Each structure stands twice: as C-alpha cells, then as structure tokens.
C-alpha cells in the first residue's frame, strides 16, 4: 500500500554557515516515488539544503523529516543514498573494488556492486583504477555508491555534471525507472534542460525558494516556453515586487 506521508518534509528551515544565514526559512514536501529537481545559481544553498536532508548539516531552526524520522537518525543510514558533488571514493582501488568495499560497509547484498556498475554504465571500466577515470566516469562511480542497497531516498548533488548529452539522458532514464520502482529522488542541477525531466521543481535563489511547481506549471505561470526563460521571468517579478 502506498504511504501517504511525504518522503521528505522540510519546514521553516534556517541554516547558518560561517556566521551568515544561508537558508532563510525553507518549506516544502517531497511525495514518495517522485523526482524533485533543485535548481538555482551557484551559491544559492542547494548543497546546504541537501546536506540538511541527509542529516549532516547543523541547522539553526525548523525541522527536516525523512521517511518519517528526523533527518540524520541512525535508522535512516541505509535508507538514504547521498552522492556528494566531490566524489568520495578511493583513487587507488578499481571501480569494482570501490563498490565491493562500500557494499560491505553498508551491508548491501552481495550482487549489488555488479548491479549498480551496470546501472551507471561503467561495465567496461569495472577493473580500471578509479584514479585514472575521466571526470564523468568518476562521478558515475560516486553515483553507483549511492545506489548500493537500493535506498528509498536518493539525494544526488549535480550527478550529471561533465557528462555528454547521451549519458545524461541515460542517467535520467535510470532516475525515472528508480522513481517508478518507488524510490524518491532529489536531484540538484545547474542545467535547465534537465529540469523538464523532474516531477517538481524548486527554483532557489539566495537561500530561499523562488518558485515551487511542476515544470509545466512554471512554464504556464510565466508564459514562457522554456524553463531558463521562466526562471529569469520569476527573478524579474520578484525584484519588481520588492521595489
Ligand atoms: N563551510 C562553509 N562556511 C561558510 N560558508 C559556507 C560554507 N559552505 C557554504 N557556505 C556558503 O553557503 C552558501 C550556500 O552554499 P551551497 O554550497 O549550499 O550553494 P550551492 O547552491 O550548492 O552552490 P553550487 O551550485 O556552487 O554548489 C554560499 O554562500 C556559500 O559561500
């Protein structure tokens, strides 16, 4: 039976980093089995928000609940997969060795390394030393680690940076298949053309949410045909409402 409680519930979240408030009261829900896209310019707070959801960010106020528990609860460790922007894998191990190592740490099923290597399209590189991979291949190893154990929530910080359009499309097809299998995904990106592949978008700017809606709804609301234009339109509207 589908649970009606959201996978993630963020309420009035405030975060201070380096003595400065970088999230100013952010509120939203993410329904289970959906893909939320997080978009916004560099420095707007995307990574900070993802860190709060994973439970590795000290928060100054508000609440973050994940799969029915407070973010960062020990019980969530194996239910949430997190791929950081900077790959956190061992350069001197092969792709397969890295995956086997992290699978044993997470106590993931024995055949999981082979499954996730296939899912991210790295079959031909399984025995290559990770330090010799290209940037795009390295980020896919990082993504593969997050997929180990088939977590219910995947938090992916710019997983498609540096990938060519064909690979990006393949990864978005994988994300969609995972969501159809019941997983919830939160994916940050700089790239507006990826935004259309999400179920819902949060457009962020300067530590706040500029808009929250479906890609279609945002295009309609702004009367624009593409999301890049919609984003600019929303910024202009917001600037207008402040003067
Ligand atoms: N450790 C830190 N100490 C002080 N300030 C920080 C720290 N980490 C991030 N910040 C600041 O917090 C704000 C939000 O940063 P964050 O990394 O969340 O942005 P982002 O939207 O993910 O950017 P990008 O897309 O470039 O990764 C930025 O202004 C950044 O300078």
TrEMBL record:
Domain of life: Bacteria
Molecular function GO labels: ATP binding; ATP hydrolysis activity
UniProt keywords, alphabetically: ATP-binding, Nucleotide-binding
Record-annotated ABC transporter domain positions: 8-231
Keyword RNA-binding: no
Pfam families per the UniProt record, alphabetical: ABC_tran (PF00005)
Presence of the UniProt keyword Nucleotide-binding in the record: yes
InterPro entries noted in UniProt: AAA+_ATPase, ABC_transporter-like_ATP-bd, ABC_transporter-like_CS, P-loop_NTPase
Listed name of the protein: ABC transporter ATP-binding protein
Phylogenetic classification of the source organism: Bacteria, Bacillati, Actinomycetota, Actinomycetes, Streptosporangiales
């Amino acid at each position: 039976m589908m649970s009606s409680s959201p996978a993630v519930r963020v309420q009035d979240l405030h975060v201070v980093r380096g003595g400065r408030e970088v999230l100013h009261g952010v509120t939203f829900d993410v329904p289970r089995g959906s893909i939320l896209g997080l978009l916004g310019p560099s420095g707007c707070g995307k990574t900070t928000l993802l860190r709060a959801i994973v439970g590795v960010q000290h928060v100054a106020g508000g609440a973050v609940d994940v799969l029915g528990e407070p973010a960062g609860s020990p019980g969530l460790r194996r239910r949430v997969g997190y791929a950081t922007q900077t790959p956190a894998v061992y350069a001197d191990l092969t792709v397969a060795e890295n995956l086997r190592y992290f699978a044993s740490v997470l106590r993931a099923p024995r055949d999981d390394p082979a499954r996730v290597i296939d899912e991210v399209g790295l079959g031909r590189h399984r025995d290559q030393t990770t330090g010799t991979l290209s940037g795009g291949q390295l980020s896919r190893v990082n993504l593969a680690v997050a997929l180990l154990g088939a977590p219910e929530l995947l938090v992916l910080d710019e997983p498609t940076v540096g990938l060519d359009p064909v690979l990006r499309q393949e990864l978005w097809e994988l994300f969609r298949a995972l969501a159809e299998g019941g997983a919830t995904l939160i994916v940050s990106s700089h790239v507006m053309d990826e935004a259309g592949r999400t179920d819902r978008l949060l457009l962020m700017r300067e530590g706040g949410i500029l808009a929250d809606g479906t890609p279609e709804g945002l295009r309609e609301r702004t009367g624009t045909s593409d999301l890049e234009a919609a984003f600019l339109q929303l910024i202009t509207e917001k600037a207008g409402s402040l003067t």
